[in-house]
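Complex record, two chains
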Amino acid sequence: MAKDTLGEFEHQVLLGVLRLGGEAYSVPLVLELEERTGREVAQAAVFIALRRLEAKGLLTSRLDDHAVGETGRVRRYFKLTRAALPRLRETRRALLRLWEGVDVTLDGAR
Amino acid sequence: MRRRGASRAARLRPPLAVRWMLRLLLRREERRAVVGELEELFELRRERDGERAARAWLRRQWAQYPPRLLAARLRPAAPPVPDLNRTSGRRAWRSGEPMDNLWRDLRHSLRSLGRTPGLTATIVATVGLGIGATTTMWSAVHAVLVAPLPYADPGALVRIYTDSPPNVFPLSVADYLALEAQQTRFEQVAGAASATMTFTRGEVAERIPGRMVTGSYFSLLGIRPLRGRLLGPEDDAPGAEPVAVVGHGFALRYLEGADAALGRTVRLNGTDHRVVGVLPARVGPLEDGRDFFVPARWETPPRRGPFFILALGRLALGVDRAAAAEELRAINRRIFPLWQDGYKDERASWAAAGLKDQVVGDAGTRLALALGAVGLVLLIASTNAANLLIARAAHRRRELTLRGALGATRGRLVRHLLAESALLAAGAALVGLGLAAGGVRLLAAAGADYIPRAHEIGLSGPVLAFLAAATLGSGLLFGLIPALGGARSRFESGLGAGGRGATATAGTRRLRRALVAAQFAVATPLLIASALLLTSLGRLQRVDPGFRPEAVLTAALLLPAERYSDPAAVRAFWERARSGVEALPGVAGVAFADGRPPNGVNNVNNFDLEDDPTPRGESEPSTPWVSVSPRYFALMGIPLLAGRNFDPRDAADDAPEVVIVDRAWADRFFPGQEVLGRRLHEGGSPGWTTVVGVVGAVKYLGLDQPDAGTVYWPMAQRPAEHPIETITARFMYLVARTTVEPVTVLPAIRRVVRDLDPELPLTQVATMEELLADSLEVPRLLSALVAAFAAAALLLSVVGVYGVMSYFVQQHTREIGIRLALGGPPRAVRRMVVGHGMRVVGLGVALGLVAALAFTRLLSSLLFEVQATDARAFAGVAAAMLAVALAACLLPARRAAGVDPATTLRAE
């Protein structure tokens, strides 16, 4: 499983966690992704992607029920693991290699 | 979620379906986190976009959970973004472990079935009933028709009989002795004759059934004793010690068990027999119900007849039945000249047939009919279940569509629906097993009077295998049809319809209508079969038996040979019995006869008419031959139409032999001519017998048989000795007409007989009305059985059409509303709905009528005075089915006509 490639959305979610300082729960993550991608993001999709990334060993999670004491709500924080950064790096490199020589064409076409 | 939060914290309960889904798929903490964080996001949205937009957003968010969670659950390794390109079924199987999937499917199905308990119960009960009844019937069919006879190498066993078309009868002593001496194609032959003997224990005498068998009988059948030994050729030798083999039940009842029985003596017909062996508890059909077996010591008789021996043969290795039959015919030709004087029937020959056919007789047709009928009910019940499940699947289309859209493969959806069906089928199988267990026991116990080999019926391996097969077949039928139909609609607009529109696709509707049509097509032949059988039964019940059956009591008496060897003593006994019983209060008169209508003839005899002699080499005519005392006709209410009754003249030692014939006999042999004074040779005897009277026709061969004539001969002329004991002067039925309820005089009659001879048992006690009713028992049972199945079939079909039409109305509420709103008359709406339903029913009934035409012919042999294609039965059933279906369609139609256009349209 660990050698599975990252899905596009998983990639985005992982980057989102990284942008939020390496640890985040779904609310800021949804807002961050919506802001960066300009699209409405389903919390369910984020939630499932987080779970899947956890299953792949790229995130760990903990429940935090003190965070919002009086409301009685619970938050689930996800944190990058050691394996996450090399994996992101690898994915980035792979994508960049794919982009090599074509971004100009795209820009030109625009 | 349980605690109420601060006022500014939003508390938004997810919709019910989402709550269920979350509860199903997430751990508690996970669930709390999801809900809490979504609420947080909602609050942020509300501040930014306002309450309305936030709520709309939240609804969208919730709606995404079930499908995404399901997708994640079903395909854990697949990318999280729903992939609308379908994954192949094979891949789905490989990715999750199959057992895991199966377990999940079953668990899921159990839950979803629990949500519709009424539907689940209906399917389990109706299909279970069908499976149970079908399995019960199969247990009988298997035991009687399929299972080999419980004898050694049963395939090689044949019954050898006399074939004189159209008659078939057993062999005679002369025949059997010749067969035994001359045959070469059989490893062994054996003869057996049914015998009822008087068993005496101290003061008590009782008539018990048994067989006289040749020494080869047990070894031919390969029967082994439970204790002691069986009979062998040495027991047949003249002067050998009288021995007997007894049945297990007899040993238990009278001889203190199988072990104690050996060596004891039993008194049969006044002779002590030493018990040398006991049969096991489970025996074959030829031994079942027989208490004793004694050696048959047959010696060469003075003439060829009578014919009473059941001859058995075991084909020698490598000899087929045709070769054996050829030799049988050759032997028969060889011995024919020896007996030609008294037996002219040159066409009569010997033939051999499988022993099983002999044992099963005509019970096969009835059993096959019952199995067929109940199988059709199971088919209809399964179709009904399919229909109900399709309706359910249509309601669940949103769920299925969602799952389909999320990439659940068609195979997976089918699997889920099949898992539901498997659970339903398993439930039905359990119900069926319970019913079959009871039914089989009932059949084995109560069926003995109607079915041969009934004691072999049981829940054997093949019966359970049949139950499994019936369950599988039924489950596949009601599982596959809705699954394929339901899964087909996967990409249709179920998702976008706001969740409300569970509109069935045209395909589903067509499928449901086809199923209802099929139900009616299957039910129609069943109802027609039932109508034919009931008509036939009605005709049988209306048959005039030819006598007045009310208040007539009958009972058999057989005077044992050793104490009544003197003909004068026999005559004296009958006379004393008559006067003794006649003197009883409540008895109007007493007569004697050796046969009882409607199907208790003791003797069928051949004869040769003086004025119409049978050409050499042809079969002589034969009719029932009943011996009676002079009072019989008056007592039974049989009119004397011409000539004279029997009288004391006929009892004189040198009296000429005379007979009285019935009207049917006169019409058959001397139509329109004088019958009185005609003479005949009776049964090969050289002397002339003269017809002296004509009486009304009476049924002796069964109510369903045509009147073929009966000959009565005087009781006074019965022979003192005859190879068949019941033809001697020592056997008679006592016939008493009473002025009170017949059974109330029975104890007094028993006292009279006991005073005359304490060792003499009174047997076969029955009133004439009972005998008539008994003779209709089998057709009555069969009609009742088939009628019950037909009623079940009709009920299920009607439920089917009602369900489909209710659904139709529900689906078309909008269209109907618009019609009504535009001023369409409710009558037109009713007509539309009814017309729609009746087209389906009409098609089914029409197909059913065609099927019935093809299949009811198989019933012909069971029908009396009704054609298998009886137009009235066909038309009546068709009309009745259409009428009932019309009623079932009218209810939804009235509901449709009552639709309020305003409400309907507003709801849209």
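Note: The two ends of chain B are 35 Å apart (CA to CA).
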